[in-house]
Design a protein that fits this description.
Layout lengths: L1 E5 L4 H12 L3 E6 L6 H13 L6 E5 L5 H10 L2 E6 L6 H6 L1 H22 L3 E7 L22 H20 L2 E7 L1 E3 L17 H9 L6 E4 L11 E2 L1 E3 H16 L5 E5 L5 E2 H12 L5 E4 L14 H7 L8 H14 L5
Parallel strand pairs: 1-2, 1-4, 2-3, 4-5, 5-6, 6-11, 7-10, 8-13
Antiparallel strand pairs: 9-12
Helix pairs in contact: 1-2, 1-8, 3-5, 5-6, 7-9, 7-11, 9-11
């Protein structure tokens, strides 16, 4: 059975591809490389070869909005399920250029869903985000929390979630939605990891500062109602995220109903916690200064991920901040300029 992974050359996508291959699945990747890296897929093939097995992977470089291409891939490759990760995901950019986000994130998903209808593909695992919740009214956040996104990125994702329910109603396409909190860390091999242009995620920004790639780190606000005044977030390791996609796919194939699931550690760490832990892991001080708050940054975001653990048997391997940062450090110090 062949699985189509859209965005499979990206940070999370490449980890999902690696894990699918390790389970003997045939993987077809579709990526336009706007944010992904072909080098990550080359590295995955090398890792598979080193482990003594052939990587059953084929890559198409193209856009999800090219419905003719997407349909051809599904029919030609005998696709039985889609893991859809391809999307623009920068909150700030989404507020500056909403059309770009609605065009790619919505139109791209419509193209995929209509291709699934034509090719009679009935299962989708969809990459969503905690941004669909907006300002939290309760912590930890459960899946029953109101979905009131405060930015275009989150709005585009909740719109797709609504679309998935209608495509199930009309075409019986089953789906599992995974709402990520803060993805972090790198593969245990140290060979595939996080590289964004521009980089906006806290942990790589901290480690780039340690490596001298940045003069200093800006901490946006130290007057929040938290123990040290900085924002608290839930960091989930990319390998644990990938494992959740495998569990979701398995659940759909075993006949589980459609549903939405949070993906988080269930533990909150402040920005200053991250800085202190990174200093301890790397053995270097982190140069930083405090700036003004960013508009719309909640003080406290932590997931309740009990539902996916109970219903799909998902477990977390990286359950503390130090292990997450240590894996990221292995990647960044070995690849200071990325791939």
């Amino acid at each position: 059975m062949s699985v189509l992974v859209t965005g499979g050359a990206g940070y999370i996508g490449s980890q999902v591809v690696k894990d699918l291959l390790s389970r003997g699945r045939q993987v077809i990747v579709l990526d336009n490389l706007s944010t992904g890296h072909a080098e990550s897929l080359h590295t995955i093939k090398k890792l598979a070869s080193n482990e003594g097995h052939n990587a059953r992977i084929k890559t198409y470089f193209g856009d999800t909005r090219n419905q003719k291409l997407v349909t051809k891939i599904m029919v030609t490759e005998g696709i039985t399920a889609v893991i859809h990760l391809a999307a623009y995901s920068q909150v700030g950019e989404s507020m500056q250029n909403p059309g770009k986000y609605f065009d790619n994130n919505l139109a791209g998903t419509i193209s995929i869903l209509d291709s699934m209808v034509r090719a009679e593909v009935k299962h989708m695992v969809f990459s969503s985000t905690a941004a669909v919740y907006g300002e939290p009214v309760a912590i930890p956040i459960t899946e029953e929390h109101p979905t009131r996104p405060t930015n275009v990125y989150g709005a585009s994702k909740i719109m797709v979630e609504d679309m998935l329910r209608w495509y199930e109603h009309v075409y019986d396409i089953k789906h599992i939605v995974l709402r990520y909190f803060n993805a972090a860390g790198a593969d245990a091999s140290g060979m595939i990891g996080e590289q964004h242009e521009p980089e906006t995620h806290l942990i790589p920004l901290v480690l780039q500062t340690v490596l001298g790639k940045r003069d200093s780190l800006t901490v946006y606000g130290n007057d929040y109602p938290t123990a040290d005044g900085t924002c608290i977030r839930d960091y989930i390791h990319v390998s644990d995220l990938a494992a959740a996609h495998i569990a979701a796919l398995k659940g759909l194939e075993q006949g589980r109903p459609s549903g939405s699931y949070n993906l988080g550690n269930g533990s909150g760490y402040s920005v200053y916690d991250v800085i202190k832990t990174a200093a301890r892991v790397t053995g270097n001080k982190v140069a930083f200064f405090y700036g003004n708050r960013r508009i719309g940054d909640p003080a406290h975001l932590v997931a309740d991920a009990g539902k996916i653990k109970n219903q799909l048997g998902w477990t977390i391997k990286y359950d503390n901040l130090e292990s997450i940062i240590a894996s990221a450090w292995q990647w960044h110090k070995g690849h200071p300029d990325g791939y």
